[in-house]
Amino acid sequence: MEMKDTREIAAPPQEVWAALFDADVLRQCVPGCEELTGSRADGFEATVLQKVGPVKARFKGAIRITDITEGESATLQGEGKGGAAGFARGEARVRLTPSGSGTQLSYEVEAKVGGKLAQLGSRIIDGFARKLADQFFERFQAAVEGPGADDAPASGADAGTADAGKADAPDSAEAKPRGWIKRMVGR
Q1: Is residue 59 part of a domain?
Q2: Is 170 exposed, middle or buried (0-12, 13-18, 19+ CB in 10 A)?
Q3: Number of structural domains found in the chain
Q4: Exposed/middle/buried for 152, CB within 10 Å: 0-12, 13-18, 19+?
Q5: Is there a domain that residue 37 lies in?
Q6: 161 — pLDDT class (breaks 50, 70, 90)
Q7: Is residue 157, in this structure, part of any structural domain at all?
Q8: How far is CA 88 from CA 29, 64, 149, 177, in A?
Q9: What dihedral angle (degrees, nearest 10) is formed by the CA atoms of 62, 92, 182, 10?
């Protein structure tokens, strides 16, 4: 499976770059992430719980970062094993480009799955992978930019109607006062 997309993030490239390799930010952004540890230099290890069609599994995996051009691009290579459910292996090439409104983040992903996951068929897997990528980058964008006036947390009676995708992210970005760098400096 192959995917590519581009997103505009209203933050300078150095801020987006720093957030892209911060374990705390990534833990918030990866859907189903139960644990994520590591660093850019050593790579990351993660445990993620996902349900793809009828297959639900806890994947344990590792991500290595290669081909780093500081502040501009990097390649993330990862592999996760989900026991009897199978495995997922892939590579993502990420590039940051300054733009008038902040940073243009573009990515190209190549991934393979095996085991029970592969038996689900490419249509289900491709749809799930696109949904997962969209959720990750929406959360990432919110974590870096911080909530705007339109994204302010609901209060009173409206608080119970929050988007379910945001509700499952512990300590979500919507509860934070500003973007990732501003939160770190404000501590």
Answers
A1: yes
A2: exposed
A3: 1
A4: exposed
A5: yes
A6: very low
A7: no
A8: 19, 14, 38, 36
A9: -160
Mean of per-residue pLDDT scores for the chain: 80
> Which structure tokens are listed for 185?
């400096």
What's the start-to-end Cα distance of the chain, in Å? 41
Read off the pLDDT of residues 41-62 as tens digits, 9 standing for 90 and up. 899 999 999 888 888 889 999 9
Question: 185 in the Ramachandran plot: left (φ > 0), alpha (ψ -120 to 50) or beta?
Answer: alpha
Q: Which residues sit opposite 46 in a β-bridge?
A: 36, 61
Structural domain includes residue 156: no
Count of CB atoms within 10 A of residue 119's CB?
A: 13
- For 50-106, what is each residue's pLDDT tens digit? 888 888 889 999 999 999 999 999 998 989 998 888 888 889 899 999 998 899 999
Inter-residue contact 103 to 9 (CB < 8 Å): yes
With contact defined as beta carbons under 8 Å apart, do 108 and 8 qualify?
no
Domain of 60?
Answer: 2-151+163-185
3-state SS assignment for residue 95: strand
Residue 180: strand, helix, or coil: helix
Give the domain CATH number at 112: 3.30.530.20
Res 152 pLDDT > 60:
no
